[in-house]
Amino acid sequence: MKNSKIYYGILAVLMIIGIASCKKDSQEQGGKGAPVITRVRTVSKADTITGVEHRITLDSSSVYDDHTVVASDSTVTNGKLNNQYAILGENLLTTNAVLFNGASVYFNPALITDKVIIITIPDGTPFGPSQSNKLTVVTKYGKVDFDFSIQQPPPSVTDFNPLAAGSGDIVTINGKIFNGVTGVKFDDVPAEIVGTPTNTQIRVKVPAGVVQSYIYVTTPGGTAKSASSFGFKYIIYDDVLSAGWGGQGSGGYDGYGSTRKYNSTEHPKRGTNAIAVTVNNGYGALQLGYGGSTLSVTSAGLKSLKFSIYGGAGFKAGDRVKVVINGNYGKAYPVEVAVGAYTDYTIKLSDLGDPATISEITFQTLGVAAPGTFYVDDLGFI
Predict the structure, then answer these.
(1) Are both 108 and 53 inside the same structural domain?
(2) The last residue of a domain, from among 129, 150, 171
């Protein structure tokens, strides 16, 4: 009798497993016809797509439920990178590939039913006018194409060179997603694009009359603004010292513990000249005294000191120069000087003692072995 009970118990378990297995197999099979896509919808209310009403929700088990909807519609015909979408249709359960413009993208099989695929469009998905603008789903029983384009992401400007230049000079703008660039402006002044831009670089001519401005790049994906401004509100040195600075026949005074050459052609950042400073001891300096009329920080709207500095002969990795305004050494700002290359610095005047007027700028070496030479170019205020 005991053995009979065990036998019937095992039989019951096997029957339950068999029924569950059949049910699971039935669910996994889904429709056996060719796949069909009826539409694509947004999934998350937190996505970045504009101009659509959000409709799709997920139930508590994170399984898509097309019946859990509100009145408004979130159907879209194009998508953005890094946003999540629901592909709706028929016979989708056996999906083994999803492609946007021919590029295969990852999908989570756990988020697929016979009617819905949940997908995120990843970085690197092709976009632009040369693409097919097709969403393709491949299943065990066939494939289907659906008209769906990928929106171009907005551009970004990482840097530009030189930091300052005259009218008609060439500025190179570096960044990302410059595809199909339609325009470049210095503030609201259009600039002429030179040559053929790439997706990461644009060369433009500086428009006439631009002294200091931000650079804007516009593409089909939007407009990007440079993080720092181009040019100067007040220039001290480009290829020559401005009037009143450094005792070069225009008032002022210059330097100690060093020799200075204001028309050095050895390592100009741009143009033909730079300031070459060879220190005679570990704390030699370029000291530019101002002998002109009062330079008011407030009246001129000055916020920061901007310059480029280069480590030449005698400099080694890690060597530094401290920047001082108006002899306020208690607020000296040390900067590292790269050997064999220019480094661009923008230092807030609030970090240099917050002066009300400007009467002197000093670049003093910090224990650099003498003799050592550094170069300064594109010096001024923004």
Answers:
(1) yes
(2) 150
For 326-356, how does the pLDDT look when each residue is reduced to its tens digit (9 = 90+)?
Answer: 999 999 999 999 999 999 898 999 999 999 9
Do 62 and 90 fall into the same domain?
yes
Indicate the pTM of the whole model.
0.57
- Do 269 and 314 fall into the same domain? yes
pLDDT attached to residue 62: 42
| Number of domains into which the chain is organized | 3
User: Which range marks the domain in which residue 115 is found?
Assistant: 36-150
pLDDT tens-digit readout, 136-163: 999 999 999 999 999 999 999 999 988 8
Query: Quick one: what percent of the chain has pLDDT higher than 70?
Result: 84
Mean residue pLDDT across the chain: 86
CATH code, domain with 98:
2.60.40.10
82 and 96 both lie in a single domain: yes
Same-domain check for residues 126 and 210: no
- Of 109, 126, 150, the residue that ends a domain is 150
pLDDT at position 33 is 94
Does 310 score more than 60 pLDDT?
yes
- Distance, in Å, from the CA atom of 95 to the CA atom of 142, rounded to the nearest integer, reads 9
Are 80 and 183 part of one and the same domain?
Answer: no
